[in-house]
Design goal:
The chain is an alpha+beta fold. It folds into two domains: about 120 residues, D-amino Acid Aminotransferase, Chain A, domain 1 (2-Layer Sandwich), CATH 3.30.470.10; about 160 residues, D-amino Acid Aminotransferase, Chain A, domain 2 (Alpha-Beta Barrel), CATH 3.20.10.10. About 30% of the residues lie in helices and about 30% in strands. It contains eight helices and 15 strands. The strands form two sheets. Strands 7, 8, 9, 10, 11, 12, 13, 14 and 15 form a nine-stranded mixed beta sheet that branches. Strands 2-1-6-5-3-4 form a six-stranded antiparallel beta sheet. Strand 8 and strand 9 form a beta hairpin. About 35% of the residues are buried.
């Protein structure tokens, strides 16, 4: 059966979903998106993802008349039509809509809404324990990284630069301060076992999985500190890992040429958090 996707009120074969050539998302990256994990026949933190979507639309001044409940129903129905119950993600994108190309933001447009599903990669225990390699890179993005906009060119180019240089990802640095990775938030564990992550300001995307892991960490009595930290603090950390809805948790074993941790075993904070998060999504 052909994969079914969603476009502007219709569930269609994926290859038949066509967006107008003058859609603002295509010509200006004028839109927002969310990626949500789907496990055990439910959207994981689905409401929180949609609340963030509504915030992004508001910050972009994209006017609409649909509700969170409508978007939730679309996503659930899309999985039903594809006979999917677990191990998938859904990509939901909303742009300002179609309009003759002008440099300002046209008003009174009907937003374009589309959604597609994709299987998520499940990382083996070996991959988890081995960790990934990340390089540091200047954060060249704009000043509103808190909006989950479809303008991802900087992150795409820098992610590719990392791969071209033998790394798995890149970690952004802004004035010697760590912000996040190209498509994920970052946590470190210091020498006192404090779990530290950058504060949710305009220089990072306030990740839904980030927030859930902070909640879980506090519940299992880890000391969580939301504060800015430097490259040196990152390099001196006992553990470092990335988080996102699709990655969940990916430990980092090397930053540039510095080994952070040779192996993330079952005693590591990263593994404990992963275990608790998997319990959460299985409920």
């Amino acid at each position: 059966m052909s994969k079914i996707s969603f476009l502007n009120g219709d569930f269609l074969p994926h290859e038949k979903c066509v967006v107008g050539i003058e859609d603002r998302g295509f010509q200006f990256a004028d839109g927002a998106y969310e990626v949500t994990l789907f496990e055990n026949n439910k959207l994981i933190d689905g409401d929180n993802h949609l609340i963030r979507m509504m915030r992004s639309l508001k910050e972009l001044n994209i006017v609409h008349d649909f509700t969170i409940n409508y978007l939730k129903e679309v996503q659930i129905e899309l999985f039903k039509k594809n006979n999917i119950t677990s191990n998938y993600t859904i990509y939901l994108q909303i742009t300002r809509g179609n309009h003759t190309r002008i440099p300002s933001c046209p008003k009174n447009l009907k937003p374009t809404i589309c959604a597609t599903i994709a299987p998520r990669k499940i990382f083996s225990d070996l991959e988890f324990f081995s960790g990934i390699k990340a390089m540091t890179h200047d954060d060249i993005r704009w000043q509103r990284c808190d909006i989950k906009t479809v303008n991802l060119l900087a992150s795409t180019l820098i992610n590719q630069t990392a791969k071209d240089n033998g790394f798995d990802d890149a970690i952004y640095v802004r004035n010697n301060i760590i912000t996040e990775a190209t498509y994920a938030n970052i946590f470190i564990v210091d020498s006192k076992n404090n779990l530290i992550t950058p504060p949710a300001d305009n220089h990072i995307l306030c990740g839904i999985t980030r927030n859930r892991l902070i909640e879980i960490a506090k519940r299992i009595n880890l000391n969580v500190i939301e504060k800015k930290f430097t490259i040196d603090e990152l390099l001196l950390s006992q553990e470092a890992f990335l988080t996102s809805s699709s990655l969940i948790i990916r430990p980092i074993n090397q930053i540039d040429s510095k080994i952070i941790k040779n192996k993330y075993d079952e005693s590591s904070i990263a593994f404990k958090l992963k275990t608790e998060y998997l319990k959460f999504i299985s409920q």
